[in-house]
Amino acid sequence: MMEIREMDHIYQYNDRMGLETLHPLISIVDFSKCEVQVESARLRYGFYSVFLKDVKCGDLQYGRNYYDYQEGTMVFTAPGQVVGVARKGEYIQPKGWALLFHPDLIRGTSLGRNIKNYRFFSYEVYEALHLSEQERQIVIDCLKNIELELHHGIDKHSKMLIVSNIELLLNYCVRFYDRQFITREEANKDTLAKFEKIMNDYFQSDKPQDIGLPSVQYCADQLHLSANYLGDLIKKETGKSAQEHIQLYLIDMAKEKVLDTSRSISEIAYELGFKYPQHFTRLFKKCVGTSPNEYRMQN
């Protein structure tokens, strides 16, 4: 297995691509201006990265479907994530653009406080954002505005203007992901059906007693998705979070079991995967409006 190279600083990436470092905490890369080919490698970044890959999306398979956006695929990574594929002796010439920015750049800003809300930084590479030509041009315009500011030189306004333009770009990406969830509605419904089946199979097995309640991460792993992507997909489709769906499914099952008066509420709680019966009672009352015992008596 090829080693993972650590890349903690922006200048390290610029040096690798043969580029001048205009700012220690941010870089805009137009790969069409890079004259060097780099050896393929697995890299662990210490900074945020946004890549706009110029490829024909009609040639990309996303799940079981092909999509016909002309070109433009965006991939987002957060500090600590590993990027790239290592093939010994293979050299590549990337195409497209990259935005790289260090966490120190946004520390103390509104973007720094809200960066966790841009959940696509935790999506998997195969959950990329596929752009239309119009969307791609908007992204490039945002990147060029940041590049222009970097060439202006650093002054007391630089940080505010640069961070504001990054935030604008990320907000556009939120809009484009919302569009993507809508345009892939049929594929999303297929995922929702599989999600329901996973929960049904889970509660029909011994897993609740063995490992406890099902988590969003467990369901996402079964669907080969990241937890954030699954959560956002379900939220866009239904208006409820993945965790809420799990809880509602659990409560529907609990209602049936509670009506079986041959078993105590504690036995039912343990059977459903709760470690403590009082936690089951608390969730049941929150969702139903009455305690399990009260629901049993009323029905």
From TrEMBL:
Residues 197-298 form the HTH araC/xylS-type domain. The keyword Transcription regulation applies. InterPro entries: Homeodomain-like_sf, HTH_AraC, Tscrpt_reg_AraC-type_HTH. The keyword Ubl conjugation does not apply. Pfam families: HTH_18 (PF12833). Keywords: DNA-binding, Transcription, Transcription regulation. PANTHER family: ARAC-FAMILY TRANSCRIPTIONAL REGULATOR, TRANSCRIPTIONAL REGULATORY PROTEIN. This is AraC-like DNA-binding protein. It comes from Parabacteroides faecis.
